[in-house]
Amino acid sequence: MMEYPCPLHLPKLLERSELEVAKEAVRVAAMAAAICFLVIAAFQVALALGAPLGRAAWGGAYDEQLPMGLRIASGVAAGVWVLATLIVLGRAGFRVVRLPYGVLRWGTWVLVGLLFVGALMNVASSSGWERFGWGPLALILVALCLFVALGAEPVSVSG
What we know:
Elements: H1 10-48, H2 68-91, H3 101-123, H4 128-151
Helix pairs in contact: 1-2, 1-4, 2-3, 3-4
């Protein structure tokens, strides 16, 4: 004879399962965002090192190599994208580096806002790369970071 769980305990089992599924979805979204952030960081490093990709960045004003000032800015931007990676992963519960919970929580919301503004700027750009490449990618990142910000539960401080 097959045994079934007590019907009174079934809702608790379902809740736990739904919670685990939700946590996993948040972690997958954070990993997807992190991969995109690292791709953008690598692109910025390439620009900083002098790659002839000026058409695809900084408004598309330069056909080849960026001038030294924008190359330095791309180097700084690469660091910002790495920080964004650490924030979104930390918010989803990955222990990459130890950052205060407030930084993770508010940092994720700041990313949502900045990525949205960046998406608007890219879509309005005269550069086709920015309009049709970086703009849509930024909107995808807005959605992923928003999903992480809304779905992540507080990270325990005990570590």
